Description:
This protein is mainly alpha-helical.
Amino acid sequence: MDSRLFLRRALVVTLTMSVVGATACVKERTGDDKVPLRGDSPVPGAAGGAMSGTAAGPEPVLSVESQQALEAGNAAFRRKDYAGALAGYEKAAKLSPEHAAPWMGVYMVARARNDSKAMDAAQAELIKRDPGPPLAPAPATGPSKP
């Protein structure tokens, strides 16, 4: 696998999992039925970072039903019930089609199944919904010339 592709995938996985974890924290603190994930978070210090608001506007929010489907997918994934996890993530994606988090779950299931074609498709869906910051060029390998 090309090192740039690996780094890009690793970055997408890391950032999305951070967002999913932050979602639960923000929901717990705000008690709101919709979970803000970008820019105008009501929790002090929660805004900003690589996943904060964009010029196009704030991140879409997950409805309670979508969040529950996502959590069901996460629970199934932890049990290694990949069919159940995929069902939960797909339901969340249908309920919140503009959101990237369900597609991260689909990506993780594909990765666990070692299905590179499904991983690439899920990654493309993730990038459509949240392109993220541009990647820095990979460092040159090999001996340097004086």
